[in-house]
Amino acid sequence: MKLFTNNKQEVPIVDHCKPDGSKWSITEKLLLGLSFQDYKKQFFRNPFNWAFIIIFLIGTPILIERYLFGLGTVTHSSSDYPWGLFLGFGLFGMVPLSASGFMLGTTVELFGRKDFHPIERLALLNGLLGYFFAVLFLMVDLGMPWRLPYPMFVSLGPAAVLFLVAWHVATYLSVQVAEVLPSFFEWLGWLKGKRAIRSMVLGLTVSGIILSTLHQGALGALFTYAPGKLHPLWLSANFQWIHFFCSSIFGGLCMVIVVSTLIKKFMAWRCDDHFLETLDNLSLGLAKGATLAMITYIVIKFVAIAHDKEWAYLLTGWGQYYLLEITVAVVLPLILCVWAIRNDNATVVRFAALIVVLGIIWNRLNTALICYNWHLYQEIPHWKEVAITVLVYSSYIITYRFILYRLPIVYEWKGEK
Amino acid sequence: MKQVVNNQKGLISFILMVQITLAFGMMLFGFIFQAEWAKNFMVGVGMIKPMHTQVDYYTYIKGIEYLMCVYYFMTFPVFYMFLSKKKKK
Amino acid sequence: MKNKIINRRNFIKGGLGGAVVASQLKGKESQAAGAFDHYPDSMGVLVDVTRCVGCRSCEAACNQEQGLPEPEKPFNDYSVFDEVHPHGGHGREERRTTEYNYTIVNKYNVPGVDHPLFRKIQCNHCLEPACLTSCFVNAYSKTPEGAVVYDPTVCVGCRTCMIACPFYVPTFKYGSAFKPRIMKCVFCHETRLKEGRPPACVEICPQEALTFGKRTDLLEMAKSRIRSNPDKYVDHIYGEKEAGGTAWLYLSPVEFDKVGFDVHVPHEPVINFVRDFLSIVPMVLLIWPALFTGFHLLSNRKDAKSQHDEDNQEV
């Protein structure tokens, strides 16, 4: 893209009108103002796209295999390990990293911190896509995905935690679509729709907080069904939902830092100056919020051990693994963040955010797979399971990029808004 | 145009508020004076019913709780709009 | 003071006018305290590990009764007891129930016991089933007869029941893409239990290792067996309290973990671990709207005021 942005002054598109005054058509907007030939050229010039092509060539037949011959052919899911990588990584790992939407929505819309406005839309989009693809992972894992609406309309089991998860994902997904729509309407030029959504923004934000609290919490509470199966250090019947909720706060914030870093590095042509100039400060601001959640998280994790009187477990191998997880995934980035915030060092903050993001995924995999059935044996996912997971995650990245290229997420729309 | 829309909104929220007040009033009336229909209603919707297991009990009470929550969810914005709108001078 | 309470209770009784309601209120009070009668007439099975000889006829009877597929090795082939299923990254060493067999018998060579011991595995039909409470489409139900049954027509295949079951009982048809379902022992509910007949495995048992009867009676029977033969049995009835109590009860001559039982299963219903979260949900749903709207008003007083003035001017 750099090649074109340097040579053509009308690219990238930031307005309804071309420099000569005529309007861009939707097709032109979709092709980023390039001719079809040029678009193809830039697509194949990008080495990432070649990687994606290979992933899709390998993954798609396996995904088809899963839908034609059943889960058994592509996963190691069994009677002892019903959930594998699709849920362990896709659902439990992606959802906490999508908490950014409600965090930034609250900051800007509810508390009126307009200085975070440049990154708000990115956070909202990050939330929407994370949830959407978590649902796609769920669709891969469910035995009968076509029955997804059953818990809502056909047969209701309101006492189940998963019932809450289902309802909250469904409603929160719609709330997030509504929250992201204004940027789509700006791009489309349909201002009436944008105004309609803006008038509901407080309601949407508050519902976002409620649904996120419960939804993040409910994912944690799912494991309270397995008190005898999950290792006690990773399970706290009383506080599990708060652990998941609290860690999602810094997980979501750090995910925005990581994504914005990638955007700055690989997609600078798409960002406007305002975004690029404020990004360092905003990252520090987000990290400051994240540190508050991190220090709380460390304390409540140990309070949970005290509450269940599990100190003795810390002396076992599992205990060492537990302490390793806390140290590497939370304490280390916390220290890095504190140092970086005091020294105004955005680079270190970004590095710490990456550790946090990986750490969250590590924690969720520990809870869902590695420390699950600690009395029994360890399940190792089938390679096809890994291939499908990579495939779905790649489509997540591609969709993410597709939207960022076009909609006014990291730049301000110049035309009428 | 905007005024018409606002008036309509006001009317709708007013009607809703009246309905809610009426419903609560009726229930209160029924329960305070222990009307026969109040008892029949409670038995009918299962508010009074023996349960044999805790799991069934939870399925039941959670259902009612969430219905109340959803109802409140729909009422609260109306209530807030109603609250934020000052009377015309 | 005591008089006052009684008077108030009488007042409520009289007010609601009817012994029916009053007695139900009494029931309600006890429910709030967490005591449920768990269908006092529901049935159960007492399994006496000392009597089982590992003939596998219960496996065969179950296979036939439930119309399950023919096994690879016939039921009179006893080499299955010595099969070791290697981990290989998936699967456990011991035989377990699968989608093809709702019940299996495993052999245990316990040091100090001169003969092998056998233990039958199937759904224990909990009094407070974890599968039931974890199911978001209500596919499971506990019948008054005591069985925990499953309805495949509403199941979505999320497999949370398999996570929740403390005994690892429900199995899933992973091999089916279009009609996967949970497979588990249903106490022969449709074919036998409903009519008061014992399940097929119990009926066929030649050793009377399995006894069918009212759970309350079986508990008494188990206790009297332990009392009259204290040397023969360990003083514990597995299933009396495990997971809040199960319809199937077990007596063993050795410590239960030596014959493959999970002794870490909590002695209370699984729902007790989930209850805390469930009670918070409505509070979050009901308190957050006003709380955060309030925060918004608090932090945007100026904006809100100017906005308000604008509105008034427009009108």
Task: Give start-end ranges of low-pLDDT stretches of chain B.
Answer: none
Shape of chain A: globular
Total domains of chain B, how many? 1
Number of domains of chain A: 1
Instruction: Let me know the number of strands of chain A.
Output: 0
Count of helical regions of chain B: 3
Mean pLDDT of chain A: 89
Principal-axes geometry of chain B comes out as flat
- Cα Rg of chain A: 22 Å
Mean pLDDT of chain B: 75
Structure, explained:
The complex is a heterotrimer of chains A (417), B (89) and C (315). With 417 residues, chain A is mostly helical. Chain A has 16 helices and no strands. Chain A has a single domain, classed as Formate dehydrogenase/DMSO reductase fold (Up-down Bundle). Helices cover 69% and strands 0% of the residues of chain A. The radius of gyration of chain A is 22 Å and the shape is globular. Chain B is mostly helical and 89 residues long. Chain B has one domain. Chain B starts with a helix and ends in a 5-residue tail after the last helix. With 315 residues, chain C is α+β, with helices and mostly antiparallel strands. Chain C has a single domain, classed as Alpha-Beta Plaits (2-Layer Sandwich), CATH 3.30.70. Chain C is 35% helix and 11% strand. In chain C, the strands form four sheets. Chain C has a three-stranded mixed sheet with strand order 8-1-9. In chain C, β2 and β3 form a beta hairpin. Chain C is globular. Chain C starts with a helix and ends with a helix. The chains are: A mainly alpha (417), B mainly alpha (89), C alpha+beta (315). Chains A and B meet through loops of A and α3 of B.
Using brief descriptors, characterize the structure shown.
heterotrimer, A: 417 residues, mainly alpha, Formate dehydrogenase/DMSO reductase fold, 0% strand, globular, C: 315 residues, alpha+beta, Alpha-Beta Plaits, three-stranded mixed sheet, two-stranded antiparallel ribbon, 9 helices, 35% helix, disordered N terminus
